[in-house]
Amino acid sequence: MTNLPQDILSNLPEVTSDETLSNTFMGNVVELAIVTDDHVKTMEGLCRLGIGPWAVYEFSPKNVTDQTYKGEPCEFALKVCFAKSGNMIWELMEPLWGSSIFKDFLDKNGTAFHHVAYDCNDAPWEDRLAEFEKRGFKLVQSGKWKGKNAFAFFETGDATGTTFETYHFPEDWDYPEPESWFPAKPEGEVTW
């Protein structure tokens, strides 16, 4: 770091601990996501690594409201699959139709790691959105699953090499029953 120009070094935040900076707001990693052109094939590979079982959903205008793409209203549909892994969720997203950052990414990169989601220390939703914007990161995709679970993706790729997301589950949130499970439905009660 000593080879960096002084003007860059002087604009960096202060180190406040071994895991925080003076401008820390992201909180905890809650999700890692892969964009894929074949969610079944990707789930199968991840199951061989011991990641699963997978709850499979379709996100579309039927169950996702307030859909946006690059600041404009835009309808899109995705196959979205979730698997728990300790305190984190794995997510797979397969674009089905409509404009989305996921389709853009898939067209450019093929199946690959796409984004990481943080809880932003459970800050109020509008505060999270404002903080990303304040730091120069534009909102590029958003929506509300079941009208409650707000999600937002930010244009962070040029600065970080990946996309960052935050989402909010209200206290009364219950995951809906998935359309299917892969490779099979778990026995007993499912707790997210």
Briefly, what is this?
The chain contains five helices and 13 strands. A hairpin with a 2-residue loop joins strand 5 and strand 6.
Written description of the protein model:
The chain has 192 residues and is α+β, with helices and mostly antiparallel strands. The chain has five helices and 13 strands. It has helices at 6-10, 39-48, 101-109, 125-134, 157-160; strands spanning 15-17, 20-21, 29-35, 54-59, 64-69, 72-73, 76-85, 88-98, 112-118, 139-145, 149-154, 163-168, 180-182. Strands 6-5-10-11-12-9-3-8-7-4-13 form an eleven-stranded mixed sheet, with helices on both faces. The longest helix has 10 residues, at 39-48. It is globular and about 55 Å long. The relative contact order is 0.19.
pLDDT averaged residue by residue: 94
Unreliable runs: none
How much helicity do the residues have?
A: 10-25%
Overall 3D shape: globular
Continuous helix count = 5
Largest sheet strand order: 6-5-10-11-12-9-3-8-7-4-13
Largest sheet entry: 11 strands, mixed
Series of secondary-structure elements, N-terminal to C-terminal: HEEEHEEEEEHEHEEHEE
Radius of gyration: 18 Å
What's the count of strands? 13
Beta-strand residue fraction: 35-45%
Structural class: alpha+beta
Measure the end-to-end span: 41 Å
